[in-house]
Specification:
The chain is of the alpha/beta class. It folds into 2 domains: 174 residues, Rossmann fold (3-Layer(aba) Sandwich); 75 residues, Alpha-Beta Plaits, CATH 3.30.70. 38% of the residues lie in helices and 20% in strands. Strand 4 and strand 5 form a beta hairpin. Helix 1 crosses helix 8. It is globular and about 60 Å long.
C-alpha cells in the first residue's frame, strides 16, 4: 500500500517520508524520471486536446532536463503525435506513446510497422467501434496507430456501461485476438500488446539508469509500478489501490515533488567531488 505523502503548507511542501525517499533517489548515479502526462503533469480535462502541463510541473521538468546523468521521459497512453502536441517539451525528453508501442528516443525512427493481418484486424476494430460510438451519446472514438480508444468521460453512467459491454462482446466475436485495456473512462483495443511496465524497462536499458522515478495516476500505470525495483521510486496520484510506495493527490503536488527532486539533484551535483 502506498504511503500518503500529501503536500503540506510549510517547509518544502512535501512530507518527510517522501522527502527522505527522494533524498536517497537523488543520489543515483544515473536517474531516469518517467512520467505519465494526463492526471500527472496535467489536470484531467473533458477535451483531451486542451490538456497542458501545469506551469509549475513544466518548470520542474525543464530543470530536470538540464541536469547531468538525468533523463526525463513521458510514458502515455496517448498516440505519439498527440503526446507531442499537448506536451511540447524539449526534444531531449524521451516520449513513449500508445502504452509503449510508439517511441521517440534520441534517434527517432518508425518502430511501428503493422503486418497485413494486423492491418486487417485494425479495420475490423474500427468498423465495430465506430458503430458503437455512433449509437451512444457522448461516446467517441480515438484512432491510434495500433488500435482505438473508446472514450466515455462525457457519457452517462448507463451509456458508459453499455459501451463497454457491447464493445467487449462484439469484439470477442469479430476480433477475438484484439488486446483490451481498461482505463479511467476509457477502454482501449489494440492489435498489439505492450504495457507501461515494459516501456519503463525498455527506457531503463536505453538510458542505462541505475534508478527510476515513475509517477502516474491511471490503472495502466500499475504495470509500471510493478516493474520498479528496490532502488526505484513509485508515485501514485489520486485514490485507488496501487503498488507504488508513495501517493499524492493532484498534479499540483506532483509539481512540488519534481521541484524538490530537482533541488536535491542539483545539490548532489554541486557537492560532487571536483566541483566548485
Amino acid at each position: 500500500m502506498a504511503i500518503d505523502d500529501r503536500v503540506g503548507q510549510s517547509g518544502s511542501g512535501v512530507r518527510r517520508a517522501l522527502r527522505d525517499a527522494l533524498g536517497t533517489l537523488a543520489g543515483a548515479q544515473r536517474l531516469l524520471i518517467a512520467l505519465d502526462f494526463d492526471g500527472t503533469l496535467a489536470p484531467v480535462v473533458d477535451d483531451p486536446e486542451t490538456a497542458r502541463a501545469t506551469p509549475e510541473a513544466r518548470r520542474a521538468v525543464e530543470r530536470l532536463i538540464e541536469l547531468p546523468d538525468t533523463r526525463v521521459a513521458l510514458v502515455s497512453g496517448r498516440s505519439l503525435r498527440d503526446l507531442e502536441q499537448v506536451a511540447s517539451f524539449d526534444d531531449r525528453v524521451l516520449l513513449v506513446g500508445s502504452h509503449g508501442i510508439e517511441l521517440r528516443l534520441d534517434d527517432p525512427e518508425d518502430v511501428l510497422a503493422l503486418d497485413a493481418a494486423e492491418r486487417q484486424q485494425l479495420d475490423v476494430l474500427g468498423q465495430v467501434l465506430d458503430q458503437i460510438a455512433d449509437t451512444l451519446d457522448s461516446v467517441w472514438l480515438e484512432p491510434k496507430p495500433a488500435g482505438f480508444a473508446l472514450h466515455t468521460r462525457l457519457a452517462t453512467d448507463r451509456h458508459s456501461r453499455v459501451a463497454h459491454l457491447v464493445a467487449i462482446n462484439e469484439l470477442k466475436a469479430e476480433a477475438p485476438d484484439a488486446k483490451v485495456r481498461l482505463g479511467k473512462n476509457v477502454i482501449e483495443f489494440s492489435v498489439r500488446s505492450t504495457t507501461k511496465g515494459e516501456a519503463v524497462e525498455h527506457l531503463r536499458r536505453y538510458t542505462h539508469a541505475s534508478a527510476v522515478f515513475y509517477a502516474g495516476d491511471d490503472v495502466t500505470d500499475e504495470d509500471a509500478f510493478v516493474a520498479l525495483g528496490a532502488d526505484d521510486f513509485g508515485l501514485k496520484i489520486g485514490d485507488g489501490p496501487t503498488a507504488a510506495d508513495h501517493r499524492v493527490t493532484s498534479p499540483k503536488e506532483v509539481a512540488a515533488v519534481l521541484s524538490l527532486l530537482a533541488n536535491l539533484r542539483e545539490t548532489r551535483e554541486h557537492d560532487a567531488p571536483g566541483t566548485n
